[in-house]
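Entry 14. Structure prediction run on the chain below.
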Amino acid sequence: MTQKVAHPMVKFQRKVRSLVDSKILKPHDSIWKIAFLYGDDWSYWKNELLEFGFSMQDPVHDLLVVEEWDEE
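Output returned:
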């Protein structure tokens, strides 16, 4: 039985969804607001998001609706 390892962006997406569910972030907030919560780790996640075509002005909702994080 092989176990599939989740893409790091899937884990990030789950954390962001948890922040929205707990009302810390709102779905219409800009992605850049996540930076306040991630501190030193933000530069890594910002680069990842930019590589996937997100801008920091995109709403958090756009991040949450991604179904697959394929890298080609």
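The chain has a mean pLDDT of 90.
Filed with the rest of this week's runs.
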